[in-house]
Amino acid sequence: MQLIEANGAKIPAIGLGTWELRGRACARLVEQAIRLGYRHFDTAQIYENEREVGEGLRASRIRRDQLFVTTKIWTTHFAPNDVERSAKESLTKLRLTEVDLLLLHWPNPQVPLSETLGALAHVRKLGLATHIGVSNFTVALVDEAVATCPEPLLCDQVEYHPFLDQARVRQACAGYGMAVVAYSPLAKGRIRNDETLMTIGKAHGKTAAQVSLRWLVQQNVAAIPRTSKIERLSENIDIFDFTLSDDEMSVISAMGSAKGRLTDYGFAPKWD
Known about the structure:
This protein has helices at residues 23-36, 50-59, 80-94, 113-125, 139-148, 167-175, 195-204, 208-217, 230-237, 246-253, and strands at 3-6, 9-12, 16-17, 40-42, 68-73, 99-104, 129-135, 153-159, 179-183, 222-223. The protein is of the alpha/beta class. The protein has a single domain (3-260), classed as TIM Barrel, CATH 3.20.20.
C-alpha cells in the first residue's frame, strides 16, 4: 500500500470511508477490508458507527500499530471543554487508547476557531490522538487554522473527485506540509459511467472508479471511498499496479469545476 507523507505522518493512500454503514454489516465490512489489505479507516461521531468500526478492527486481530484510524468531532462539541470529553467518548466507543487522526468535522463559526484548535492540540498532547486536522475547511479557514493552532495540522479532509476542482485547497495544504484526504472520491457513484474515465480505464484494463482513485493517489492525495459491497472493496484497493500518463492526468483534471460539488449544507462555509 502506498503511503501519503505529511507533517510527520504516513497515511495509507486508500482507506475505507464508513459514512452510512451501520450495525453488524459495518463491523463485517471493516473486518473484510482488513483481510483485503486496507489499513486506513475513517469514521466520525455523527456517523453513529464508531462502536461497530472498533468491533471490526478487533475481530480482524490485526496489530494496532498497522492501522490508521480517523474519527471526527461534530460541530456541537467545539467548545474547549467539550472537545476533550468528546474525544474520550469516541475512544470509548472504538475501544482504542488513541486514534491516529482526530478531525474537526466541519467549521463552526459560532465558536472561535483558536479556542477549538487549542483544545484539539491539548487532546493531542494528552496522547488521545497521534495527529490532528480539519475537514471541510476552505483556503481562508486553513490559513487561520495553521496560524492559530499550537500543534501541526496533518490534513484537510474535503470532497474531491474528477468533477470538482480543488486546486486551491490542495495548493494551500501543500504550502503548509499538510495532506489532502478525499471523501466521496467516486462522486457518490457518478464516476462509474463517465465516458472519459471509462475510455482511459480500458487502456489500462481498469474501471472508471479505479482510474479516478489512481488520479487522486498520483496527486499525493489519500482517498477514502465508501462502499457496502465486498466486490467494490477489492476493486477500490486494486489501483497500485498501473500508472496514468501525464496526458491522462491532465485530461481528468480538466473535467473539474466549482459546480461539481455534491456535499453542500446550509451550515457549510463559503466555498473557494
